[in-house]
Amino acid sequence: MAAKARIIKCTGSPYEIGFSHGSSASDEIHGNIGLYADFFQDRAKINWEQARERASAYIPLLSAKYPEILEEMKGIADGAGKGLSMEDILTLNARSELGLTNFADGCTCISQQGPEGRIFLAQNWDWLVVHLVVLHIIPSDSSLQMQFMCEAGLVGKIGLNSAGVGTLLNGILAGAQSQDKFPIHVLLRRILQFASTFDEALAIVEEYGLASTCNIMIADANGKAGSIECSPHGSTVIPPRGETFPFVGHTNHLYATNRPLAAVDHPEENSFARLARMDELTRHDTEKGVQPSFASIRTRLCDQQGSPDSICLGKPSDDAVGMDKVTTVSTVIMELSSKVAQLTLGRPCENLPILEWTMSGLH
Known about the structure:
Oligomer: single chain
Distance between the termini: 25 Å
Helix content: 25-40%
Radius of gyration: 19 Å
Strand order of the largest sheet: 1-4-5-6-7-8-9-10
Order of helices and strands: EHHHHHHHEEEEEEHHEEEEHHEEEE
């Protein structure tokens, strides 16, 4: 199945936003439910009904602290039809809590400060080839507009908002879970919907917490950025480093020196190699005077040293099954001061960007 993404504009109330999403991407949502049902069975040894029962444990928390997101999930379910319930959509949105305690997706992220106040966020997302959408959400209330890429049926992921705050995500393999904190993708949506600065985004992380372990990289239009290692035990910020073009990178392991002692992960070796390689390439660019740009950062994300476990992950074999099918599914590069993002589907070393979007519209 080749990767592709449908662009969906959603406006109105939470339910109306969800219904537009669900009705426009019904086939993709049902396809993702099938894919994640197989994933849960393979990695967590639970079927879809069991996964839905576990995900439903988040309903009391979200009903109390973010009821509008449950309304949106109900709208997604009604729009997608064929008997889907809000609980099914919640299960999709809790896929990290249900599955990534057994297997972490691969991702290489970087944030870098450029000249004249430009700030970049960029990521290769390595995962199974799922059904993707780009959502352009315009709430009818006073919250921020958002544009982000996600699996169809999810309410938040990788993107930016009208204030110029952007988000990236690294999955982390760790066993700790909490049902009194927000699932990762719900928390990402909360940031995109309500945070106008890095500090406001960090305050949201601290207020609502993360139900499972991950790294969220955030930058804002004013140039403030950081990589926030999150777990149910607390969060730790890794700031950019360097004088000329300060940067911070992250892959799929915890490396903050002052993180909570109880935050323990179980990374793959290639996570360390990819992070070291991104650091090497970024420092090399800086030493040569290469400024951060869409082109220069994209070149780093195309790197294949150490393939197949490289920054641009190798292509799976034709007979691969299960998690052996993981590859680089997409590349997103954002510049937050201009609120511009580029999306590439598939491995960036083989494919060109298919979409550039700004907060003034999609084109």
